[in-house]
Amino acid sequence: MARTGGRPRQIEPADIVRVGRELGLRNLSLNAVAARLGVSSAALYRHVDGRWGLERLVGESLLAELDLRDDLSDGPVPHLLSIALQLRAFMLRHPGLTGYVQTLFPRGEGGRRLLATAAESLTRRGYSTEAGIVLSAAVASVVIGYTATEETQRERAEELDAQRRGVEQALLADARLGAAHRALPTITPDEYVRMWLGAAIHGFVEAAPPGRPLHEIRAALLTAGEGQ
Q1: Phi (first) and psi of residue 68, to 5 degrees
Q2: pTM to 2 decimals?
Q3: pLDDT tens, 118-137?
């Protein structure tokens, strides 16, 4: 262990959080944090319970900074779409956070606060607390999954762009698809996400309108699409 003045260097949880955030969740490890702090990885175990504890300490510090704006004039669909887009933007600003919340949520106080806030925002729109939790979790699962795909694409952006150009050229040259592909409008990534999430959220709210009991919501979701 590194020593300062003949004594082992003393570290605090705040030091681990600071260095962990500098590294980012994507590059987070006990060894990397310990090296930055000039201590052995064993020294971290006085403050965190292994890799899971380290992830939780850093991940929850990030989630504590996420304040979801709530326009009370919005109905359920525009409200949930706004929340989803805010969550997506925040996760993309913090690489690795998507994987953190996707693996297990909520892990700590930051996650529980967000879940409670999301549920409370829906109770103000006529939902019971339990229905609000279910609906918020469903929307969060969709946006987290999509954002995880976006993160992967961003990591491979240069390689992916070259492949995308090849796919585009092949589509345009295809006798079955070329004409239709040329007629498609140009849509930005943000527009595409907004459309895709909006459609999913509209479907959720159709199955789970304000005031519907949770058991009826469950039944509606289980039978969605039947008889169509």
Answers
A1: -85, 120
A2: 0.86
A3: 999 999 999 999 999 999 99
